[in-house]
Write a structure and sequence with these properties.
This protein is an all-alpha fold and 301 residues long. The protein has 11 helices and 2 strands, in the order H-E-E-H-H-H-H-H-H-H-H-H-H. Helix content is 75%, strand content 1%.
Length: 301
Amino acid sequence: MSSSELQDIKILGIPLNYIIAAFLAVSPITSYADQTFYVWRRKSSEGFSLDTCALLIAVSSLRIFYWTGRDLELPIVLQSASMLFVQLIYLKLALMYMPAVWRRSKSLESEFIPFRRPLRFWQWRSDWKFYLAIAIFMVFFGVLTIVLRGFDTYFGIIARIAVALEAVLPLPQLILNYTRHSLSGFRFTLLFAWVSGDLVKTVFYYIDDQEYYYKIGGTIQTLLDFAILAQYIYYWRQKRAALRLEQEEQELSADVESIGAPSLYNSDAHSINSRLDSFADEADDDIHSELIPKKPTTSNN
């Protein structure tokens, strides 16, 4: 289905392609607003994978580079531009409130970094290295785009690279959740935005009859989103079960204290000791009476 055909489909008098374009353009802002505010309020970015930021910055940049030399649908261009802007802001905030254990403690680092990469790529403790890596990436592909502007093969390659990276966007978060056995720090609003946004985007790829690799990449990304949703439900149920067990233990402890079990124990022990003491006194009297003979009684005649 082409863009002209999408214009013929209207919802409340608005062409469908306009609705999809507007949704995709504002989705990065609306989806990451709550996550950004949550990090700022907690003063900690724990729970969100910085690898996701790297992938989103790379994908958005490659699509913009592609658009400078070849035609690209306006909704995808708008989404890429807004996503690049949002991710640069979020990366700054995430690095500012990076967990202190990441920067200082090597023994607890594995909780936040599942595995060590060569040259510690994108796992640095210094903020400027992240920005330097982004600058090098931008300059490298910017120069390539200018030099190879007349080669369709180059634009085909970067288009496929962008789709491949986008397809695995949820994967770092999926691995981090599994490593931490928790989704704390990762907002459900963002997860909902991922699922709904990627689902709409993938549907757009199919109805707009995009290239096959767009369809495959969008399908894989949506499936990974649903895998994270399954994680959320699983760990949420585990947390509820743990809280319920803890509450039951507290109630049981309160019931034991309410019946005065310690005082009953102490009173019973005191009673038993008193009875043992009385038995011992009676036994001593019996032994004393047997060992000391009684004086014979004399009669006065």
